[in-house]
Design goal:
The protein is an alpha+beta fold. The chain has eleven helices and eleven strands. The chain has a five-stranded mixed sheet with strand order 3-2-1-5-6, covered by helices on one side. A two-stranded antiparallel ribbon has the order 4-9. A hairpin with a 4-residue loop joins strand 10 and strand 11. Helix 5 crosses helix 7 and helix 7 packs across helix 8. The two termini are about 30 Å apart.
């Protein structure tokens, strides 16, 4: 399931020279706004703003990182970040505000003389937990091969899964591309590796397909290696999953995870375990 209009993988080059990455929703960035204007005048510095396009002011030296591509591709964790850029790529960087360091970095004295000597930075919007997964989908060049299913904006995702017979009536987690990519971080195996042949239709099941189902089941990424091992086990001739699925056999399989691995991945064995 994928609801984003497009996936972009082109890395934007930064303007050469001094570049500052900021956002208005950061007290330290607001604090150094006069310094940014001063550096734009004295050192032709470019400021890239993550949220408000007119912060620190509407000017030709301010660039709006509207889709956070600059911030994501150039690994901006903290704002303000001051960069030295050569041929479109950062060669040096400073994070937060410390007058002495900014003066040494820029080669310009008397920066923010009326400001505190030091202030910590804030988290970049590109690493915001509410945005990071979707940014990874948009920019990482995902190689997922599964079919994307578009869900209308006014359509309830959970009802859509039920209407498509993707559940047995119990609620499942919508397998968005961001969630599946996060699940795949739980294994080093290739997405397209065929893990087993699943009866009764004898369909190949890949690591990616297992990850999609693990998302729907509410698994954590740490659980994925165990889920993959379980799929490998139940698809062997010895287990005879074909006989379980393709007959009126009155039993159902259950997977019990025991031993050190259960503790290692933090699998629940207490309240609401069943």
């Amino acid at each position: 399931m994928h609801t984003m209009a497009e996936i972009t993988t082109a890395k934007p080059l930064l303007p050469d020279g001094l570049v500052a990455i900021v956002k208005e929703d950061c007290p330290t960035c607001v604090l150094v706004a006069p310094v940014l204007a001063d550096l734009a005048d004295r050192a032709s510095m470019t400021t890239i703003t993550q949220d408000n396009a007119a912060f620190p002011q509407a000017a030709d030296w301010v660039v709006h990182d509207h889709d956070l591509a600059y911030s994501w591709f150039h690994d901006i964790d903290t704002v303000p970040t001051l960069l030295r850029v050569v041929d479109g790529e950062p060669t040096e960087r400073l994070e937060g505000w410390k007058r002495d360091d900014w003066e040494a970095f820029t080669g310009i004295d008397d920066l923010g003389a009326d400001l505190p000597d030091w202030r910590p930075g804030c988290g970049s919007l590109s690493v915001d937990p509410n945005r990071a997964d979707e940014l990874a989908v948009r920019f990482s060049g995902s190689t997922m091969r599964s079919r994307r299913v578009e869900i209308a904006a006014l359509e309830d995702e959970w009802e859509a899964l039920y209407d498509r017979d993707w559940s047995d009536g119990l609620p499942v987690v919508p397998p968005t591309e961001a969630r599946v990519l996060r699940m795949l971080e739980g294994t080093t195996r290739a997405n397209d590796e065929i893990v087993a042949v699943v009866p009764p239709d004898l369909a190949d099941v890949t690591v990616e397909k297992i990850a999609i189902n693990a998302v729907m089941a509410g698994c954590r990424p740490d659980y994925l290696p165990v889920v993959i091992a379980a799929v490998e086990a139940i698809c062997t001739d010895d287990f005879n999953m074909h006989g379980v699925l393709a007959t009126t056999m009155d039993v159902g399989p259950i997977i019990i995870v025991n031993g050190p691995i259960a503790r290692e991945i933090g699998m629940n064995s207490g309240g609401n375990v069943l």
